[in-house]
Amino acid sequence: MDTQLIPAELAQEDTPSAATQVFLDSAGSSLPPQSVVDEVVNHVRREAEVGGYRAYGERLDDLEAGYGLAAEFFGCAPDEVAFTDSATRSWLSVLDAVPLTQGDRILTTEVEYGGNAIALLNLAQQVGATVELVPSGADGLIDLDALRDTLDERVKLVSLVHVPTNGGVVSPVAGAAAIAREAGALVLLDACQSIGQLPVTLAGTGADVITGTGRKWLRGPRGTGVLVVRRDALTRLRPRLVDLAGATWTGPSEIALREDARVFELWENSIADRLGLLVAFRYALDLGLDRIAASVTDRANRLRAGLARLPRATVRDLGEHPSGIVSFTIDGMAADDVKAALAERDITVTVSRVTSTRHDMSRRGLEQVVRASPHYFVADGQIERAVDAVARL
């Protein structure tokens, strides 16, 4: 039986602003549901009434329960979950804990995100490691045979991206992770663009570490991130940047690190935003992750099909079953100009540039693409309105 789609009009009842515009940027920073907004704002107000520490103490049980909530979302144990202030913080914290030395190898793919690539190259230069590229096929998917042939005992880390920032391709991360882990490499998965639009579990992806953000498809607050670390991978990581959240000062010259994923947390964080993130997790779970995925796919496929009918538009997404990200170009018109022209019609898209996904964009001869990312709260009529607006450019 087909998964029942989420009626956009029903979702818009929780997100009134989604009904008054055509919002196609959930891959950037989505519109949060009203329950998330209320949780954040109410806690900030409570902090103004009684101070941050007392307000925090009143919500300790809710914050602790959040680890179990995220564990339900990712299909893992609560002690494999940590919360951070961004996906970037999650990703960099784990990368810094990977014990890399002279001569070690790091493998990445053609859809590696620019921020990750910069961090990898910088670290590799400092320790004398190398960063090497695993090629993709013409369909944009990782060449698993090439990955297998490239692996050896010197490969300490394989960096994978589930869904790239510049298009709809969904990488075969489970197959790649299985090959990499069999060879003894740690697998770090950037799931920024998949969490909240596709089911993402520790077992399903096969990764050792999953990093993600709250502000995109999950519809949580900005300034929130999540980190999932497989329990048996924790013993292979050596966190350096810890404070009193991740460790205890046990004696004048002694400390004891936490033995769970929370070793990567920092003491200072926005409690209001953390609470809002937990509401976003619960909201997604209540809707149903499979139902969300089916609804996002439906909206994206409708937009892709409409754009493909336009004579000057070229849809740039790869893969047989693309995600909710729709990338396209318009002949004779710069992506920034398309974005600006659509904004005048109250249609929100963004631009993805070669600097964000250099390997993939360069291989395909692209400098920039328009990126549209419709969530389940975008109605069919709004999709038609967006296609019509592009046709008029």
Question: How many strands in all?
Answer: 15
Output the CATH homologous superfamily of the largest domain.
Type I PLP-dependent aspartate aminotransferase-like (Major domain)
CATH topology of the largest domain: Aspartate Aminotransferase, domain 2
Percent of residues in β-strands = 15-25%
Helix content: 40-55%
Extract low-pLDDT stretches: none
Per CATH, the architecture of the largest domain is 3-Layer(aba) Sandwich
Oligomer: single chain
Q: What does the average pLDDT come to?
A: 97
Question: Which secondary-structure class do the elements indicate?
Answer: alpha/beta
GO molecular function, one term: hercynylcysteine sulfoxide lyase activity (ergothioneine-forming)
Pfam family, one: Aminotran_5
Domain Aminotransferase class V: 22-380
Pathway: Amino-acid biosynthesis; ergothioneine biosynthesis
Overall description:
The chain has 393 residues and is α/β, with parallel strands linked by helices. The chain has 15 helices and 15 strands. It has a 7-stranded mixed β-sheet with strand order 2-8-7-6-5-3-4, sandwiched between helices. A 4-stranded antiparallel β-sheet has the order 11-12-15-14. A hairpin with a 2-residue loop joins strand 9 and strand 10. Helix 2 packs antiparallel against helix 11 and helix 12 runs parallel beside helix 15. The longest helix has 20 residues. The chain is globular.
